[in-house]
Amino acid sequence: MTETKNDFHKALDGIIDARSRESKRQVSFRMQHQLIGSFAKRP
Question: How far apart are CA 42 and CA 25, in angstroms?
């Protein structure tokens, strides 16, 4: 029981880690996009 529980937690941690990494990348990409947009709008 404890072994399967550990495996489950490991898998869960991996999924959460991947999700958070992906969301961070998307946020940074969005911030860069906004920055470029604001620079491009300036005359």
Answer: 26
- For residues 26 and 31, give the distance between their C-alpha atoms in angstroms, rounded to a whole number: 9
Mean pLDDT for 11-33 is 90
Q: For residue 13, name the pLDDT band (cuts at 50, 70, 90).
A: very high
Say how many domains are in the chain: 1
The whole domain housing 1 covers 1-43
- The Cα 33–Cα 37 span in angstroms is 6
Q: Cα(5)–Cα(27) distance, rounded to whole angstroms?
A: 33
Strands (E), the chain: none
pLDDT at 1 over 80: no
